[in-house]
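Model it.
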Amino acid sequence: MSSEVLINVAPAETRVAIVEQARLSEIFIERTMQPSENARAGRSGHRLLGNIMLGRVQRVLPGMQAAFVDLGLEKAGFLAAREARCLSDLPSFMDQPCISKCVREGEAIVVQVIKDPISDKGARLSANVTIPGRLVVLVPNQSGVALSRRIEDEAERKRLTDIVTDITETDRRAAAGAGYIVRTAALSASRDDIASDIARLGDEWRTIQAKRNMAKIPATIYADLDPVERTMRDGVDDDTTRILIDDPEAVAQARAYATRTMPSAIDKIQLFNGPGELFDQYNIEAEIEALLGPRVRLPSGGWITFETTEALTSVDVNSGSYTEATGLEQTSLKTNLEAAAEIGRQLRMRGIGGLIVIDFIHLNEPENIGQVLTVLTESVAKDRTPTQILPMSEFGLVEMTRKRVREPLSKLLSERCDPCHGHGRIRTVATVAAEVLRRVVREAKARPGAKLVAYAAPEVTRWIEGQGDDMAAALRSRVPAGLRLEARPSFARAQFDVGVDQ
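Modeled.
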């Protein structure tokens, strides 16, 4: 299925949208962190997920089968026994070892962030680190070759397994004793391309080992790619027809990455220069706004409603005013099929994870139930985040899980409204600040040479001013004539205005 990748780069955040057949399929938003939040975490301003860090075991809790690791962050990271297994001396065929057999308090260990800190929880960690390349993933602590579950053709699986096995046994540039996971992007890739990817990963791993020997605890010894390069690595494939980026520096960065690892994608990278704003041209801003609401309309007139609690996310399917002339069963089937096809897309875009319970409209015929489950399975099949679906219960409920790897979009962009006692949500200060800065950049393009002023609520101006030198440099490059921030105590949080400074 053909797709386009849209990358909007702004001073406060980078937003990536993947559009399939003129319809939004995925949206990723990565915020610039305040210096105090990321000062000791490595590369400034980006997420921690994927980073490899040298930490010190703070506490070992056999009762929880877990340990807490000091990484120099606000909260200690959480290392479960199953993620620490590679640190034990027990044979691989044995059951999960006790955490005390894997780590000791005060011990220095290398871990990788497998889930960003969410709400009041610290980062989730794994000692079995991985380093993703364009075509393969290096697994230093585990030998052998594994393949992506999306590679289904047996002949291609054998071809790729044989190629990777041969390279690891004969090429001295490969990391010694390491294992590899072959990614879907390797489908039809040549031996030379795969060998180059393995060689790059081998060099990266040797660099990490050298940094580990010299680093002072705590330290980041490997930082995953920034949003632009990561999108090129993970979001661009043979079906991608165009990559539109609205920032010249980001375009150069994307082309440099493509030159190193995927030359065939260079010609697909284009600078968006207007007219208008990139996300407006593709109606992405309106799509993001809709994702903050609980209800999604279906083509037939029904709808699905998403409600998230601490324990789970419930998805309710409603036929609305739609009725099928052939009867209730067909009405329910059509609505359920539309809902099943849409739910996978909504889960991806909303970033919903954990336990999900879907309340489909009741069906009597087993064949119809099978159709709904098949469409739901196909809907989540394109999701890079692992999911698992259970059969439909007698009450029409389907339980499924989707791995939590980041904050849901609703929590990233909004928070509970205290005046309404938690029954509503308002945009976070960071979300409003990002909107202010996007407006500033837009006005600077429309009025070159004019010094601008932004009026906003005090908490919003404080957030922008508190972002440090990186933010100031980003604003200078985009607003050369200068920007003045003026706090307006009378403004509500979401209220702001941008104009020419007189």
